[in-house]
Amino acid sequence: MPHTAPNPLVLFSFPSSAELTDALANFIVKAQKEAVEKKGRFTVALSGGSLPKQLAALINHPGVKWDKWHVFYADERAVPLDHEDSNHGLAVRELFSKIPASQPQPTIHTLNPEYLDDLEELADQYEKELIQEFAMKDSARFPIFDLILLGIGPDGHTCSLFPGHELLSEEDRWVAYIEDSPKPPPKRITFTFPVLNHAARIAFVAADAAKADTLHTVLDEPEKGLPASRVRPAHPGQLYWFVADAAAEKVQFARTPFKL
């Protein structure tokens, strides 16, 4: 019997990757429109993995206003920006490099490669980027992103927040570093749960059928405490999952028909 979790979330499931990516693009553009109308800019954070590929439908979407975008990375690897392991490098290859040069370009906030050998300073510098964008404009204890787009690992991790790691308990820092990631590369920086859970909207994207067991645990058994289950924005109803039917095969959580 389908059920809902104590803290509400919305689950959209799609029979094909094309339907998923089109719906996701329309969802993002709606979030962008509302943010720009309200405050003149759209703040969004991306994770890596397969997520940038799922954003391809944005390239030719007529509603995208790239010049209003302020893009951050929800986590990043401590490697040069053009390295094959860099989330920024991946986003450039899969998304940003495909924006026609004739169009206005987004503002992209990357880590500072000068501090790759000093993880604490690397995290501090990226936190300062967030402070510059948010604290000086919004006067908030934590940044309130218009949208954070996340993926999920086979172990239930999201960003660089891994099961059983001490960073799951971080309550003060906006950006933390990890030097013992169980998934290579080991050195990374990541948003913390307070930042994730202050977002106006969060959308997880999962299209891989191999993650069916993980999605079942995250969505149907949140009491097991996998990192992705701990993402619960303070704004009720503003947590969304965009998944392929194959990835949601074992999920009992009730689906919602997608509409804007």
Automatic annotation (TrEMBL):
GO biological-process terms attached to the record: carbohydrate metabolic process; pentose-phosphate shunt
Assigned EC number: 3.1.1.31
CDD domains reported for this sequence: 6PGL (cd01400)
Catalysis performed (reactions): 6-phospho-D-glucono-1,5-lactone + H2O = 6-phospho-D-gluconate + H(+)
UniProt GO MF annotations: 6-phosphogluconolactonase activity
Keywords carried by this UniProt record: Hydrolase
Pathway: Carbohydrate degradation; pentose phosphate pathway; D-ribulose 5-phosphate from D-glucose 6-phosphate (oxidative stage): step 2/3
Domain named Glucosamine/galactosamine-6-phosphate isomerase: residues: 16-241
Keyword Hydrolase carried by entry: yes
Task performed by this protein: Hydrolysis of 6-phosphogluconolactone to 6-phosphogluconate.
Family: Belongs to the glucosamine/galactosamine-6-phosphate isomerase family. 6-phosphogluconolactonase subfamily.
Protein name (record): 6-phosphogluconolactonase
